Amino acid sequence: MNFLASPKPSRRTATRLLAAAAVLCAAPAAFAQTVPKTVRLIVAYPAGGVSDVVARALGDRLAAQMGVTVIVDNRAGASGAIGMDAVAKAAPDGATLGFSAISPLVLSPHLGKLPFDSLKDVAPVASVMYSPVLLIATPASKAKDFKALIDDAKAHPGAVRWATSGPASLGHIVLEQLRAAAGVDITHVPYKGGGQQLNDAIGGQFEILSINASPTLSSHIQSGKLRPLAVGAPARLDSLPQVPTLGELGYKAANINSLFGVFAPAATPSALVAKYNAEINKALATPELRAKLTATDNVPTGGTPAAFAKEIASEFESNGRIVKAAGIKAD
Fold it and tell me: pTM of the prediction?
């Protein structure tokens, strides 16, 4: 998730994340600069999804650039926490990286105990992309734009039904932020995952759906079966230039999206972290990988490990406040 209006993280949290990003600089220089011949890329999601497709495309680029073999290892479950736990417990020799949204590090810890310390046991290597969150009107809704949606919710408290992929999901966080900011009573309809909710959206089983961008969603929007009312993103999407961001509409706290990146075990030598960071940024600059991302409405990011760590620290602090204020519980 990327909270664009996130307040500054506490000094304690920022210090812990930056320490993880810096990793153990005291490692022997010769060891630190040796890139393993085979690299395992743990993907915290099932094979076949958008995040898996992007991770595999990134792995292919890194293999070509670095002359190594990249093996993708899908470790799905617990909203990404299973995969990130595997990264945290891997040997810190540069042979293991992880690809995940930052939610297992910044949201999951506020919902229950994890088998690893999200602020200490993994090192941010590079931000890769953000995945926008689209607010979609289904055939059950008469709202032609976002203002009409809010007006309808105010006029008919509890009548507007809003589907998400489950309690404590990103879509649920968006809903809670809008509830608070707009002062509206909207009924939450939690699903378990995204497939069924998209089918039910087309069938008009509820009025509003908050969901990450995907090729399937795009096809339903293009066919006119679903109508986008707003998007959670730093800027409007090239594919939907007429759809405003929630920030433009005056809801900065709700203007959130999924931020994805690459991680390593916390004690991975700093020279290797820097090497992987440089190669990932190089890969993100290639037309081939950028086309793979933008084709699914995901937006390439990149940047330094320190900048990525600061974003994670800020998200961690923000999510803690949101979860507590809204009384959000994991399913």
Answer: 0.84
Number of domains comprising the chain: 2
Q: Where residue 250 sits, what CATH number does that domain have? A: 3.40.190.10
Query: What one-character-per-residue DSSP string does 57-119 give?
Result: HHHHHHHHHHT-EEEEEE---GGGHHHHHHHHTS-SSSSEEEEEESHHHHTGGGTS--SS-TT
With residue 185 as reference, give the H or E element that holds it: none
| CATH number, residue 294 | 3.40.190.150
Are 263 and 314 members of one domain?
yes
**Which amino acid belongs to residue 63?**
A
pLDDT digits (tens, 9 = 90+) for 219-248: 999 999 999 999 999 999 999 999 999 999
Cβ–Cβ < 8 Å for 124, 309: yes
Domain that holds residue 92: 11-131+257-326
pLDDT tens, residue by residue, 134-164: 999 999 999 999 999 999 999 999 999 999 9
